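For reproducibility, we list the full input for the NAP complex.
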Amino acid sequence: MLKSIVFLCISIVTVASSLAPRPPPKQKVIVTGAAGRTGNLVFSSLLKHNDFYPVGIVRTEKSAKKLIKKAGCNLESICICDVTALDPNDKIGGLEDSEAMIICTSAVPKLNKKSLLKAFLKVPINLIKGNKAFNFRELQFYYNQGQNPEKVDYYGQIAQIDLAKKIGVKHVVLVSSMGGTNPNDFLNTLGRDKDGNGGDILKWKRKAEKYLINSGLQYTIIHPGGLKDAPGGELDFRLDVNDNIQKSSGGMRSITRCDVAKLCVAALTACNGQSTSFDCVNAEVPEGGKPRTAEMALKDFLQSDKVYSYEERTGFSDGGGI
Ligand code: NAP
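The corresponding predicted structure, in tokenized form, follows.
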């Protein structure tokens, strides 16, 4: 008797659970530059997300190991691919059926150690002359062979956008940089040779942004200010357009990588099919208030009438158009 009651209960529970609505399956999101400092934060938060799961693209085996260690993922969720050698016609296993792609790749300027030594040796003379002791602008940078902004930030991003289109990705989130409206921004001078060639990282990033906008895919282009390695969620956000933040006086000029990663993930849930491009920095939390979440800040921005302009010039008094 007892046996049949237990059997009946088990049967009822089994039938009921098979009739209960199942949560929709998680959506696959490709994260490129996934071993980078912002990329791995995006990857890790998607790994913990209820609605999404990430597949990371990393440049080398060494980067794959770094990501596995940091995010605690397994090798199955990683593809190794140098985006400067990426042919969108290549078949890369594991990327099919992805809903979105978050691009976090970037050329990385390397410090020329000789220029650092020179700048240090100048400190006593600068002090005697009453100048600033250490002049950061005297430091020189270079890019590794074949890994310059034109190759990584332009052609590499174009290849990623083409790949996204080819495999049916609907939404591309691109982490770019603030300062793109100003051809004379200091960042453009990094890695430039004596003849004035090379560098131009913001110029190449902006060109890739225009390519994405014209691709027909849904896009979210994020231009962070200076990036900081500090916890996220402690400060509010300021979102604006056309480098207005750089042109205005006062306020913060930086944002934590954690908060940029939160904006990337928020773009997947808050944009509702709407494409957008914006600049972002952190902002002080108003007294007695609470910081907005990235999703709230992004929704507020989308409801504003601010539109990022990709016209040649947007209000700088020096230099030419891009
Ligand atoms: P990061 O740590 O420098 O990461 C860049 C990633 O790109 C690395 O993981 C690197 O791979 C990957 N990568 C480079 N070349 C590649 C290639 N050919 N193929 C595949 N992957 C490649 O990035 P971050 O400092 O967090 O910056 C994130 C974004 O914000 C970048 O676009 C950056 O320009 C922009 N940004 C930075 C600042 C700032 O203050 N630093 C300010 C505003 C905007 P490996 O790990 O293998 O090297």
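The pocket of NAP is lined by residues 33, 35-39, 58-60, 63, 82-84, 104-106, 108, 147, 152, 156, 175, 177, 224, 226-227, 257 (CB under 6 Å). The chain has eleven helices and twelve strands. Both points were considered when choosing residues for closer inspection.
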